[in-house]
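User: Study the chain.
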Amino acid sequence: MSKSLNGIVKAWEAKLKKSQAAAKRRANSIFNAMSVAHVDDEEITEVFHVEKVFPNGDIYTGDWGGKYPHGHGKHLWKDGCMYEGDWYGGKPMGKGKFSWPSGATYEGQFKNGYMDGEGLYTGSSESTYKGGWVCNLRHGKGVQSYENGDQYEGHWRHGLPDGKGRYQWHDGNQYIGHWRRGRMTGSGMMLWSNGNRYEGGWENGVPRGKGTFKWGDGSFYAGVWSEDPREQSGTYYPSNSQSLSFDWDLKQVYISCCKIGTCDDISILPSEKSVSWQCDLNKQQSTGKKHRHNDARLRRMSIDGGGVTTSTGSESEFSYDGSVGDTGSQQEGDAGLGAEDFDASQGYLHPPHMTVKPTKKQGITISKGHKNYELMLNLQLGIRHSVGRPAPAISLDLKASDFDPKEKIWTRFPSEGSKHTPPHQSCEFKWKDYCPVVFRTLRKLFKVDPADYMISICGNDALRELSSPGKSGSFFYLTNDDKYMIKTMKKAETKVLIRMLSAYYNHVRAFENTLVTKFFGLHCVKLAGPAQKKVRFVIMGNLFCTEYAIHRRFDLKGSSLGRLTVKPESEIEPTTTLKDLDLNFIFRLHEFWFQKFSSQVDRDCEFLEQERIMDYSLLVGIHFRDVSLNSEALNTEAAASTSGKAPQVSALLSTAPSKGDGSFTLGSNLPARADLAIRRNTTGEPQLVGEPTGEYYDVFLVFGIIDILQDYDIGKKLEHAYKSFQHDPTLISAVDPRQYSKRFRDFILKVFIQDN
């Protein structure tokens, strides 16, 4: 390469780095306003090894670039704390180890000085935690071993067990189930070392709601549990070896519930260790980039588009008004968010007239008296029978006969019970399993635990029915934990699924990151009586079962005819499914994830085209990162002032996708930037994809391809012919599978683009 060309390349690289740097804090000197460049603004051309002793007694040994540690190095504070690992621009960034004078250590990933990523913390009392961290807090999957010998393995959220997990006490007792803010809450099972067990609802660490207590001899008590005796009710069922006499107090269960251990208190966090690098006395002074509308100092705005404000309650609404006002003086250090959290040069603004309402649980609980209550009981009885039925070891290599449409099992469920079925309170019915070996293998392939699957669908919690049926006339039901969706099916749809089942199995086995719907079971309930009514249904994964609240959802097909939701903004709820012409974003993905996404969309569309499937869509859920989990505006100043250990909100929300980061998967909680887009109506027809404005949101995306059971049958061909007389044939949804696949891919890859 010639010297002149080499110089051009270097100049271009330097310019690119500068354009990607965040806007810096602005501050007034005691003499006059002046600017001091930050390390990110400088191109570090030389890294060398140094040994520095600072006036306050700190010692640094390692790589140095410009004015800061940059590379690998060791810093020893005068109080005995030490960090050894990777540095970037004066902050621990990458892999490293932090040691405290007490003997406690953390070894793992760091981001901007915070423990963030995968890491192992070992306390001074030899308690340990190995798993995910976000902004100095345990977050994600992890295993905590306590000082007294207890152990918790499962999900964490903001430093506490939250989600699904297993807690094992040192005396042999254990709890398996759901947690909320460090307490056993939701559905779960408690196993005592003496053989007794309780399975049912929990609240704040004690049994609450419907549950069953079983003794080791086979007797059990089923009913409603509460610490208030007035709310208790239930029935005792003795074992065959016992008489009906029974003398037992429910309080014994509450007394025997075990205490949860506590994690070590970290005396001082790595991000709290201040460092005054030489020649860095004016670090807080910088030239803030001016906003194109005004020169007020910028900070990351809450979802309402103004400064960060305190929420008035979970019922309030937060609207984007697009305004940016003066937020007042910016505190130094970690107490607040500065202009570096808001990149004016990249145009991070909130669009006008958009409202995000608090999210609510979807659907109506099916309780006694509901028209589909008996159907729900039949479904739960059938699933429990199918999943719990003894079966040989599963091999992923299936035989052609396993996919035979005649491969099905009928089971009769009389009300009084039978040799293979339990007695029940519903009417008599027959239960059919379609291709049971295939769906059992699919559940294994999708890493679904049989016990968890059965508890989610057949536990003590009732299903929830969505308020209105789909366009096809099918009804949808959700499990209480939101993991699974149950859809009633027409006979034609059932035939399509069975016909394509072999190709579907091969596809999902070959492509682990496939975006097509995950099917876990196909069944039929045939009710007794003269009508002999049959209800077919399929069990699928719920795409929106995620730790993040979904604030907007879109159903995208790539067609424009009838693809607009006629609703004013004030009536749009988080559960409202919007359509193609409602979409006002273009989603920018990290290069690594965009390549995986575009490749997988191509493969999935090829599979659906080969199976003559059309009319499918990409369902997209959006979580705006600047909204807290209960949809309240983020109050960063309050959070920082309540505790010195509270994480800086910008750091908690600044996770970036990377090739080596295992916390993200394609289609699930994928971080992205949503670029506000505006459609122009110049030819009488609105644009299908708007033009980007350069104004962004930080978002998490959840997406998948749904409605994959519609083939191009005679009905769809007639629909295409009829609508083609009235409209442009390229704009309607019902088109040939090949044309549909091409149009769908072209549209999706305009909506999802690579973030450069």
Q: What stands out?
A: The radius of gyration is 29 Å.
